[in-house]
Predict the 3D structure of the following.
Amino acid sequence: MKLQDSQNILPIEENEETQSVKIFKDLKDELPTGITEGEHLVKNFSLNEWNFGVEKRISKARQDCKTQGQYVSQVIKNCVKSIGKVEDFASLEEKEQNFTLAKLQVGDVFHIYCWVRVDAIDEKVEFNAQCPSCNNADDYIGNLFEMEVRTKQKPSDQNGEYKLIKPVKAKEGEIDTFYFHSPMWTFVENLSQKELLDPALYKEKIFQQTIHGTNLRPEGYFLTPDVADQFNKRDTDGLLDAIEQNIGGPLLQAKVDCKQCRYRFNMPFEWRYDNFFSSFSK
Ligand SMILES: [Zn+2]
């Protein structure tokens, strides 16, 4: 899942499909990753009906949102009935709701958010896209039901590692491998508009939030700028790619066949703005 380049058109990666990829429509009320409970992942959730009261509450709460992530959180808080073992999520105090949200993975929150959208409106999303092959710009309709979703089967599936092409120096010695885990929802919730739009700031933030170990210190490691600044370009991109490939959840993109030249490309869904729910105002 790529969160940042929703303005860019992405090429279709050939080896993207793995055994853990499912189709959004088939998962329904099952979280792609789930909440870790010992050796298991608890994956169930349910939604309340979206009505005008909900719409008014979200609209009011939205005014206090400082980040796009906080807006997504407000949608979840107002629309979710239960998550995992928290059966009374809807009736909890906001502080307790935040406590539950903090235990969710980024991809799980987007999975619920997309289901709220489907439940409230429908699965179709209109967008305009420019073909990377012939440059023809046209209107298209994407289908959220057809999104690919990466799923995890056990808690350890949330972990990954990246071997550096060019090792870096740290006080404790030479680092050649980083261990990371999937980002938690609070990562996106706290991501400022500036960090969301600036590629370098975004990378530094996601590296710091997900890397927890190295070959020298497998646990309890925090990446510092003096180490991160030594990454060469290929390692910076390779590490980001490894972390993003490891995020469970919907890929938030539609496959588009250019109306003019038939070239096939991926177009990211624009989750950041109100137009994800805009059919309401039509
Ligand atoms: Zn084209």
